[in-house]
Amino acid sequence: MTVGCGGLQELKRELEVDPDEMKRIAASFQREMELGLEGRSGSLPMLSSHVGSPTGDERGDYLALDFGGTNVRVLLVELRGEGVYREKQRLSVPLKDSKAGYDLTCCVADGGQLFDFIAEKIGLVATGEISYRLGYTFSFPCCLLEPGKAVLLRWTKEFSTRDVVGRDVGELLQNALRRNGINNVQLGAILNDTVGTLLAAAYQDKNCDIASILGTGHNTSYLEKNKHWCERPVIINIEAGNFDKLKGSRYDRILDENSENPGRQLLEKMVSGRYLGELVRIVLISFYQEGLIFGGNWGEAFAAKDIFTAKHICRILGDESRGLKVIDEVLHKDFSLIDTDLEERRLLRDICGLVVERSAKLAAATYHGVICHQGFPCGTERTIAVDGSLFEKIPFFPVFLDAALEKLRENEGAPTRMRLVKDGSGIGAAVAAALAKN
Ligand code: BGC
Q1: Whole-angstrom Cα distance, residue 130 to residue 133?
Q2: Which of 172, 181, 237, 388 might form a disulfide with 214, Cβ 3.0–4.6 angstroms?
């Protein structure tokens, strides 16, 4: 069948973020940040991490718990000083497993069950007579009252476990450790994954003062040095994903209305891996209803919510074959669509490309907002540490991001470099535990 170009052109207009728009978003993001720092209500809570930058010379063995998605990791990390670290042990376990018959991420489970499960896994790594200090990365919006006391403000991403929101997640973990007879682990620090990524990167690179997660979720933190806002330099968790000053298209509105948290995490819903596939699916349904794609072939293929994921986008954008054979295979195997024609496969690839490019531009605009807030120290190159599957795995994502940052920079100071910091949240948890000890 012939696919209508009108649909794609219109979609382009709807998802377009031109340089002027990026600048407007950056300015509005900066304003929201400053409102949050003043403690006035806005969409960015600007949560203090209570830690500053490491020197790079922190040393010792630390236990790290990384809890931010459906896989929980427990690490034993050796900090060797001079920016060198080594992972000595790692355990990764899913919080849901349909074959094993459990799901601790949903509201069927409660906080007690969730933290008992995690404590038990910590016990498998914290063996012997040794005492361990634990850095605990908890990647959800939390109000950190002191280094080991953090109250969960609300769940994000796919989580809805009962009896955790409004509670101190440090205490929940410590109680579970005690219940499970693990008495050799002392909680040193609780931190967000963006803070962990920033600490891990800054441990090696003094020019790094911004970190971001572009994965299932999205968020950014930065080092605040301005005396007007803090007595001494401190890393602030922006909770950028909740930024709500964006126009959004009709597709974004449908996604939000049908999400588990309508009206919340609006930037995250336009940027992060948890939502990009769903956004493509909503666009596809609309194109299909307008007779622009897949004709009689459609069936129930894309009817179910969340059936189209960032992994599909990854494969689709990575298809470099002449006949778009990989896309054909994805459509056939995962969606039982046969006999799609080349034009339709191209259209699908273009839709994915537009959704991904917009995500990168929006993220870049918010990074520029942070940089404008921090100011442009003369001639200093700046590093933004990034972790997450979107940045690491989605074809062209880093290219789109770099191009957008370059457009925003113009003559305003030295270049900004993006650096992938894999598993930064785990290493950063160890660095935070070391900082807390010192
Ligand atoms: C959470 C943040 C977290 C981000 C990346 C968001 O959904 O609100 O706290 O940093 O995901 O994991």
Answers
A1: 10
A2: 388
Distance 217 CA to ligand 1 centre (A): 5
**Distance from the alpha carbon of residue 131 to the mean position of ligand 1, in angstroms:** 30
- How far does the centroid of ligand 1 lie from the alpha carbon of residue 130, in Å? 33
State whether the beta carbon of 58 lies less than 6 angstroms from ligand 1: no
CA end-to-end span of the chain, whole Å?
67
d(CA 382, CA 211): 11
CATH architecture, domain 5-37+209-420? 3-Layer(aba) Sandwich (3.40)
Domains 5-37+209-420 and 59-204+423-437 are alike in CATH topology: no
Helix (H) or strand (E) holding 197: helix 193-202
In this structure, what token pair is assigned to residue 339?
């006999």
Residues 6+ apart with CB under 8 A from 267: 218, 240, 241, 242, 243, 244, 246, 362, 366
DSSP three-state, residue 62:
strand
Q: How many helices (H) and strands (E) does the chain have?
A: 14, 15
Domain ranges in the chain are 5-37+209-420, 59-204+423-437
Q: Is the minimum distance from the CB of 213 to ligand 1 under 6 angstroms? A: yes
Nearest CA to ligand 1 atom 12: 217
What is the identity of the amino acid at 263? G
CA distance 304 to 286: 14
Cα atoms in the 13 Å half-sphere on the side-chain side of 26 = 23
342-374 and 310-317 helices, crossing angle to 10°: 110
Q: Which of 67, 192, 266 to mutate to test the pocket of ligand 1 (most atoms within 8 A of CB)?
A: 192
Question: Does the C-beta of 141 come closer than 6 Å to ligand 1?
Answer: yes
Only one residue has tokens 């054909």, namely 328
pLDDT at 1: 40
Q: Is the CB of 156 under 6 A from ligand 1?
A: yes
**What CATH number does domain 59-204+423-437 carry, 3.20.20.70, 3.90.550.10, 3.30.70.1450, 3.30.420.40?**
3.30.420.40
Hey, whose CA ends up nearest to atom 3 of ligand 1? 139
A 10 A CB-CB count for 92 gives 11
**DSSP-assigned beta bridge partners for residue 162:** 110
